[in-house]
């Protein structure tokens, strides 16, 4: 202001304007709004450009102030001192802007890399349905096997959520009428040979092997799983999200872990390690074991624990936590998550997610005694799904008909760093075996006192305190 009044006024005006805008945002803008902005590439790019411009502007003002000090007229020692101070102050004022730019760049790159640009799906009967898949294509596995299969359904007006779990070993899954898969398997996904090749979790691999039957931008494997779930439940599946082994662990760690009350001691694979009962702060590796282990239990017990993990993640992932850990979450997600959710729909999903978070999370598991995995009553599954989602509106579809099909996609699950995939599951529980303890007419249900096939609130069966 004293050496070059015009430049000083402009700089002071810009700076006061920035301070005023920041103060106004702190006062008026909620964490929800920040979370919504954090998934918009255009907003992220604009913020990055602004941060870089402010950093360069600060440095230019400081260098100009040094120039106005007439350094040639100073003694050599003073010139060196002033030069050092100028460089130090320039670095000091530019650092916050550079750090902000790095975080925004990470968020931008993750959003662009993970979420394709595409058409926003229209809700069906007032609900948006997202398929959540945990799959493992690790060593020892034949293709991708989505062993955790859940449908998250959200009322687009109220945000009311619902969670439906299907067993990985479900046989005779249906496909939407009018699709090539429905024509090939009119009475359900089945065939000669090993029964494990025609379970629900084998549809991804089948789709990859028969891409002409499952066209669509998301790929044949995910599309096959999405169509199978859609045809079996009788509801539209709009999007999918798939998570792999390492991705699960890293996402949990990026959130800072999850809190779950473990009901009983849990054997972590063949290693003999025990996850002890009680309220536990689980990091990614232990949360994965909790969700995945079947040693000494059944597929259905594992489905119940997976439901608890979904609730725990929803419990932990408030907007402030997500924004504060966004860079770590973005880094963990970018290479571990696949989805067909278009980035154009992300801000809407943020709104829905935050509405859903504040409400109870009812869940329905298709397990015995409600169904038998080896010979499921598809009509019953569809009727119960409609009753669960729409409060008694019975499904009108028959076992070989269902809602029209969109293309779909599929996902991934987790494992431990220290043990191999094979160690995560006892040999008799091999994922690729058709003789799993949870297959056949004598399916055994969870050991809980409550009937595991009845709809329940997740909080009523899973404690996070």
Describe this structure in words.
- There is one protein chain.
- The chain is of the alpha+beta class and 465 residues long.
- It folds into two domains: 5-114, no CATH class; 127-461, Aminopeptidase, CATH 3.40.630.
- Helix content is 45%, strand content 12%.
- The protein is built from 16 helices and eleven strands.
- The chain has helices at residues 5-28, 31-37, 41-68, 76-114, 180-184, 203-209, 220-233, 245-254, 284-292, 299-316, 319-324, 326-334, 346-357, 378-390, 421-424, 458-461, and strands at residues 127-136, 145-155, 161-166, 239-243, 258-262, 266-267, 274-275, 278-282, 337-339, 362-365, 456-457.
- It has a seven-stranded mixed β-sheet with strand order 9-4-1-2-3-10-11, with helices on both faces. It has a two-stranded antiparallel ribbon with strand order 5-8. It has a two-stranded antiparallel ribbon with strand order 6-7.
- Helix 2 (31-37) runs antiparallel to helix 13, helix 6 (203-209) packs across helix 7 and helix 8 (245-254) runs antiparallel to helix 12.
Q: CATH top level of the largest domain?
A: Alpha Beta
The helix/strand order is HHHHEEEHHHEHEEEEHHHHEHEHHEH
Strand content: 5-15%
> CA-to-CA gap between the ends?
58 Å
Mean pLDDT comes to 80
Low-confidence stretches are 393-449
Provide the CATH architecture of the largest domain.
Answer: 3-Layer(aba) Sandwich
Count of discrete domains: 2
- How many helices? The count is 16
Radius of gyration: 27 Å
User: How does the overall form come out from the CA principal axes?
Assistant: elongated
Structural class: alpha+beta
Largest sheet: 7 strands, mixed
CATH superfamily membership of the largest domain: LCP protein
CATH fold category name of the largest domain: Aminopeptidase
Q: Could you tell me the number of beta strands?
A: 11
Percent range of helical residues = 40-55%
Strand order of the largest sheet: 9-4-1-2-3-10-11
């Amino acid at each position: 202001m004293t050496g070059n009044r015009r430049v000083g006024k402009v700089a002071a005006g810009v700076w006061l304007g920035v301070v005023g805008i920041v103060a106004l945002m702190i006062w008026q803008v909620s964490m929800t709004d920040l979370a919504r902005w954090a998934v918009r590439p255009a907003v992220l790019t604009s913020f990055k450009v602004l941060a870089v411009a402010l950093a360069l502007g600060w440095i230019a003002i400081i260098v100009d102030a040094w120039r106005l000090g007439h350094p040639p007229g100073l003694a050599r020692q003073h010139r060196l001192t002033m030069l050092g101070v100028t460089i130090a102050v320039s670095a000091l004022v530019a650092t916050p802007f550079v750090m902000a730019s790095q975080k925004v760049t990470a968020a931008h790159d993750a959003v662009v890399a993970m979420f394709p640009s595409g058409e926003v799906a229209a809700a069906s009967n007032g609900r948006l349905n997202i398929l959540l898949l945990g799959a493992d294509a690790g060593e020892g596995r034949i293709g991708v096997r989505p062993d955790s299969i859940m449908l998250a359904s959200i009322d687009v007006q109220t945000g009311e959520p619902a969670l439906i779990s299907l067993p990985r070993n479900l046989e005779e899954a249906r496909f939407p009428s009018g699709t090539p898969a429905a024509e090939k398997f009119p009475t359900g996904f089945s065939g000669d040979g090993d029964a494990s090749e025609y379970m629900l979790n084998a549809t991804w691999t089948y789709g990859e092997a028969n891409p002409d039957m499952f066209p669509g931008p998301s790929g044949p494997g995910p599309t096959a799983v999405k169509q199978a779930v859609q045809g079996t439940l009788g509801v539209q599946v709009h999007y999918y999200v798939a998570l792999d082994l390492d991705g699960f662990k890293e996402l949990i760690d990026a959130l800072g872990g999850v809190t779950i009350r473990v009901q009983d001691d849990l054997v972590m694979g063949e290693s003999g390690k025990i996850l002890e009962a009680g309220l536990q702060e689980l990091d990614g590796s232990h949360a994965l074991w909790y969700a995945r282990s079947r040693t000494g239990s059944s597929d259905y017990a594992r489905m119940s624990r997976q439901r608890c993990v979904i609730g725990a993640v929803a419990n932990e992932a408030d907007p402030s936590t997500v924004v504060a850990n966004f860079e770590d979450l973005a880094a963990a997600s970018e290479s571990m998550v696949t989805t067909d959710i278009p980035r154009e729909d992300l801000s809407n999903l943020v709104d829905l997610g935050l509405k859903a978070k504040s409400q109870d999370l009812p869940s329905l598991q298709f397990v015995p005694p409600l169904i038998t995995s080896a010979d499921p009553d598809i009509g019953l599954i569809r009727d119960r799904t409609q009753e669960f989602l729409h409060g008694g509106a019975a499904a009108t579809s028959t076992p070989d008909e269902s809602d029209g099909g969109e293309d779909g996609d599929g996902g991934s699950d987790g494992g431990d760093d220290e043990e191999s995939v094979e160690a995560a599951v006892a040999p008799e529980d091999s994922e690729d075996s058709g003789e799993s303890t949870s297959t056949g007419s004598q399916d055994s249900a969870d050991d809980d006192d409550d009937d595991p096939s009845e709809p329940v609130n997740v909080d009523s069966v899973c404690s996070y305190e």
